[in-house]
């Protein structure tokens, strides 16, 4: 079945060796055995027979990395931007390298960033958080005041409503980092917004909130009171340490399952009112223009979605045919993911993928599909279904409902075209 295969150390193993290998391992799956080679059949090579530098000389001591950093060999695992997307990096976005990460938690240094006025650099001692408007007692909190309230820990995804927005009219960006990388998933530590609102005392006509950022963009969004009382957090920590400056240090609003724009960073004030404010970020932006000229507004929930992260255009198949571990992410702003299906033939046939890792509400889920690739071209797709039965739509279904004017809320099924040589391209099929 396989003529030649390259192993990890770039040694060529002939057909005979491979056949023997599978017999020795006793798997009965023939040449599809993946990954390892039998030591006894390995040609002597330096990496095996000689002591290497890292095995011989003392390494750096505990004083070398007071704050840890990734291995120098992971220099490619970084956030990246798309130069032509925006005019200035201070009002721009970069993307999470989804094809380079595993599990469900996004490392803090890899979380995509979206700023409208650059990163505010705030000394927590100078930060004040206020609640005013339709409350019994307008309040000002220091960071120390906030630290006295009961805390909780929750893992949530944050997805920008514009994630995948460049793909509405056709396949455009070549890599899941760029098509789907405006999402991150971290563990937040924070105080329930409800506790703070209770402290101020809500008036009976208090129906809406307007959180505001301390950055030069003065980001504001109207949030209905039911959501604020249900599960919103005022967070100080992500992944166990203080929020990173780019994620809103020292204080950010967490609005689980809802579009990223509402998760106000550098949170300085919440005004309580009786109706929505209709500010810029919920009228001219983050509103979906339909074909008939009308607009969907207040489209808060991020609907069920998934993407195959490996293999994908930035992570082609380098090991040839045979055993393949396909992997991806799925999420729903409504709750948990119940099932993910994978297709290798562009949606004709579907197989249920294996969900792995914690299944948490409004968090990303990790899925795997382990199979034997016969070396033929593939059209890879994934389709997520959440616990309420919501099914991720095809691109055609989404366009039939919403047209092509929008950039927000594209949760449609993504297709990767895998060629015989393992290279991969972002395509669309209808
Ligand atoms: N104060 C403030 N909050 C903000 C923004 C901003 O520019 N200023 N950007 C919003 C947008 S559009 C998104 S998608 C998320 C991005 O969060 P992140 O930078 O942690 O990825 O923050 C939101 N909160
Ligand atoms: Mo956003």
Short summary:
The protein is 12% helix and 28% strand. With 430 residues, the chain is α+β, with helices and mostly antiparallel strands. Strand 15 and strand 16 form a beta hairpin.
Largest sheet: 5 strands, mixed
Q: Could you give me the name of the CATH homologous superfamily of the largest domain?
A: Oxidoreductase, molybdopterin-binding domain
What structural category do the secondary elements indicate? alpha+beta
- Bound ligand species: the ligand Nc1nc2c(c(=O)[nH]1)N[C@H]1C(S)=C(S)[C@@H](COP(=O)(O)O)O[C@H]1N2, molybdenum atom
Name the average pLDDT. Answer: 92
**Whole-angstrom Rg:** 25 Å
Termini distance?
33 Å
Count of individual helical segments = 8
Fold and architecture overview:
The chain has 8 helices and 25 strands. The relative contact order is 0.13. It has 3 domains: about 1-55, no CATH class; about 85-295, Sulfite Oxidase, Chain A, domain 2, CATH 3.90.420; about 305-425, Immunoglobulin-like (Sandwich). It has about 425 residues and is an alpha+beta fold. The strands form 7 sheets. A 5-stranded mixed sheet has the order 6-5-14-9-10. Molybdenum atom binds next to loops.
């Amino acid at each position: 079945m396989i003529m030649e295969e390259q192993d990890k150390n770039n040694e060529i193993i002939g057909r005979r060796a491979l056949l023997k290998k599978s017999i020795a391992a006793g798997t009965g799956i023939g040449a599809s055995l993946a990954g390892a080679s039998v030591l006894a059949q390995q040609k002597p090579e330096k990496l095996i027979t000689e002591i290497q530098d890292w095995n011989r000389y003392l390494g750096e001591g505990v004083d070398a990395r007071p704050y840890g950093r990734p291995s120098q060999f992971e220099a490619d695992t970084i956030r990246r931007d798309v130069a032509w997307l925006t005019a200035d990096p201070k009002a721009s976005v970069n993307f999470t390298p989804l094809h380079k990460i595993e599990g469900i938690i996004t490392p803090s240094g890899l979380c995509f960033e979206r700023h409208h006025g650059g990163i505010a650099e705030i000394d927590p001692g100078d930060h004040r958080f206020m609640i005013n408007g339709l409350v019994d007692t307008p309040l000002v909190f220091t960071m120390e005041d906030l630290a006295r309230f009961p805390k909780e820990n929750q893992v949530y995804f944050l997805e920008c409503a514009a994630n995948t927005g460049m793909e509405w009219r056709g396949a455009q960006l070549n890599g899941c980092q760029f098509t789907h990388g405006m999402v991150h998933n971290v563990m937040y530590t924070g105080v329930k917004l409800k506790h703070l609102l209770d402290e101020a005392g809500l008036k009976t006509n208090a129906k809406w909130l307007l959180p505001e950022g301390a950055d030069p963009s003065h980001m504001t969004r109207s949030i209905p009171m039911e959501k604020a009382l249900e599960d919103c957090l005022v967070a100080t920590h992500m992944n166990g340490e203080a929020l990173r400056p780019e994620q809103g240090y020292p204080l950010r609003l967490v609005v689980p399952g809802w579009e990223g724009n509402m998760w106000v960073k550098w949170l300085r004030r919440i005004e309580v009112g009786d109706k929505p404010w209709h500010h810029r970020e919920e009228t001219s932006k983050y509103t979906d223009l339909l074909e008939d000229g009308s607009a969907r507004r207040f489209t808060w929930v991020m609907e069920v979605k998934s993407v195959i992260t490996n293999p994908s255009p930035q992570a082609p198949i380098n090991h040839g045919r045979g055993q393949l571990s396909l992997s991806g992410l799925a999420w729903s702003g409504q709750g948990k993911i119940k099932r993910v299906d994978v297709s290798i033939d562009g949606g004709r046939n579907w197989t249920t993928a294996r969900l792995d890792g914690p299944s948490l509400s409004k968090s990303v889920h990790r899925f795997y599909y382990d199979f034997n690739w016969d070396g033929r071209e593939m059209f890879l797709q994934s389709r997520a279904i959440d616990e309420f039965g919501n099914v991720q739509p095809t691109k055609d279904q989404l366009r039939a409902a919403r047209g092509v004017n929008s950039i927000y809320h594209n949760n449609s099924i993504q297709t990767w075209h895998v060629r015989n040589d393992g290279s991969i391209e972002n395509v669309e099929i209808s």
